[in-house]
Amino acid sequence: MNSAELGPTFGLGNIRWVSRPVPTAGHGEVLVEMSAASLNYRDVLMAAGLYNRKQKLPLVPLSDGVGHVVGLGPGVTRFRGGERVCPIFAQGWLAGVPTQEKLKTTLGGPLDGVCRQFAVFHEAGLVVPPDYLSDEEAATLPCAALTAWNSIVTFGRVKAGDVVVIQGTGGVALFALQFARLHGARVVVLSGTDEKLERAKDLGASLGFNYNREPDWHRLVRDVTDGEGADLIIEVGGAKTLGNSLRAAKIGGTICIIGILSGATTDVMLTHILMHQLRLQGVIVGHRESFEQMNRALIESEIHPVIDEVIDASQITAAFERMPSGKHFGKIVLDLNSLSN
Rounded to an integer, what is the distance from CA 8 to the centroid of its chain? Predict the structure, then answer.
């Protein structure tokens, strides 16, 4: 079978297609023919050697994908042949709080990922995506959508009338926008281009601020909330944006930290957090139970993921290079169907 492979050393230029044996499903396992996969910024960091320098290579990249069941091992009861399935990000995290052991089961590092023609997963690590979504759309759910869902619903506890500030217009950010609107929130989107801000408004954003023109955007957030600040901020930037987020949050507000695009280390105003009773919440995707809950909400709302571009699997290097360029709006998806040709 055809499989993408990162190695023998780190580097975006070291991802290539190789031939591997088709795996066999063992007891409780399911053989899946993959049809689409999507990229996350984590995948770029992993390939560049910036996420985990101790990651063993070679590695099959990417954690988000969708495919169809083509083989069942002995004892499988959750699925049948032909069903469409998405593997969950952390294969061993089914419910409850994460542990170090559960987080050692993540796809695309340390475990081999989904960017291959066939893959075997334990049946417990698979979910059925909503029928109304295309394969390309379903492939965006396991990490990006679920991170946004848990930020908005599980940790943000967003309700009608809340103000939510979302940094950027990448995959997680746009899912967060859609889920926040689904719960009746007023959404403020931050972007570096006016064009992306207009597109975000088409998706339901109430306001958009260009952070290149307005580097102190926390002042604008306070202005449009009568000095109160935002109930929830989806923090993507990290080092260079957390200070603004702390100033933009209302007393008792929440900042969900989901990314570190501008760096991982910064000075934090502890007195501000203390006196304003702020909650900083790290979000590392979520478990299978949350994924299934999110899918039920998707079925009821029929929200469609925003896809920037679908790229043929043969152009995998171009897909990886597009991600850090910041030019994308929504998710970058790889079409894996050509692997069978």
Answer: 27
